[in-house]
Write a structure and sequence with these properties.
275 residues; alpha+beta
């Protein structure tokens, strides 16, 4: 059974998600439809890329991923199909796929040619363009039938952390805040370890706060499980599943997690000073 995943900034209140699913099932009732999320902040490509990049790897090769974020139709903007890492990704040519695959070269890129003639009417990109293309692929169709191969598409780039050698300091920034209020930075474990060679200590600094230890997981914060509840609310830094530096509050939530207690927002700086 073919799998089509859906990611969007539509939310779940309006009709749009149901319309997309209904259109898929009207074309092929055997398709397995999986929601990744529909709670992306409107037009937020950085947030989208973080979520899709970390989710798609758990799906079987050949899965078809529809990414409907900042996807409203305009004749002057292409809709594209990426074949990358063994699966298909459909999105507007707004740079989102270059963010998801900043370190992976696509096997092929196509401009989707369904409903893109001058006299075609597209009311809703996801149902009128993405769904027919996705179902075509789910049915075993070739991408060349619904698209033409192109050499390049719009590229965006993540803000990259930098190392200030005179100050012996990595300067990164907040790139994502998750449902538990955890603050995810763009500082990778590889960068931290390669930069920190030769130094004995470090301090993580943000706002007027600091931490001097990085744990390998959230649960490593608890040093004595017979007193686990006493560690609730403890602040910590970890390298998360994506091997990115994360600031967290143990057993925190949206209301009392790191975002609330530290007061950091996406785009604000996080520093690691070595000494």
């Amino acid at each position: 059974m073919s799998i089509i995943t859906l990611t969007s900034d539509f939310g779940n209140l309006d009709y749009r998600v149901a319309a997309v699913k209904g259109k898929i099932l009207s074309l092929n009732p055997e398709v397995n439809i999986i929601d990744i999320t529909h709670d992306i902040q409107a037009y937020n490509l950085i947030q989208t890329s973080y979520i899709v990049r970390n989710a798609y790897k758990y799906f079987p090769k050949g899965t078809i991923h529809i990414v409907s974020v900042d996807s409203f139709f305009h004749k002057s903007r292409r809709n594209i199909l990426y074949k990358a890492d063994g699966s298909y990704f459909l999105a507007a040519d707004n740079g989102i796929l270059s963010l998801i695959f900043f370190d992976i070269k696509p096997e092929a890129v196509y401009e989707i040619t369904l409903n893109n003639r001058f006299d075609d009417i597209v009311n809703f990109t996801s149902t009128d363009v993405f769904v027919p293309a996705a179902v075509h692929l789910a049915n075993g169709g070739l991408p060349e039938v619904i698209g033409r191969k192109i050499k390049s598409c719009k590229e965006l780039f993540f803000p990259k952390p930098v190392y200030n050698e005179p100050e012996k300091m990595i300067i990164g920034e907040v790139m994502y805040i998750d449902n538990f209020g955890n603050i995810i930075s763009n500082i990778s474990k590889d960068l931290f370890e390669s930069t920190g060679k030769g130094f004995e200590n470090f301090t993580i600094k943000f706002r007027n706060l600091s931490l001097s230890k990085i744990f390998s997981s959230h649960t490593e914060v608890v040093s004595d499980w017979t007193r686990e509840t006493e560690f609730h609310g403890q602040s910590a830094a970890i390298f998360n599943d994506s091997q990115l530096l994360e600031l967290t509050i143990y057993k925190g939530s949206k209301k009392n997690g790191a975002k609330t207690l530290f007061g950091l927002n996406v785009g604000e700086n996080i520093y690691i000073e070595f000494f």
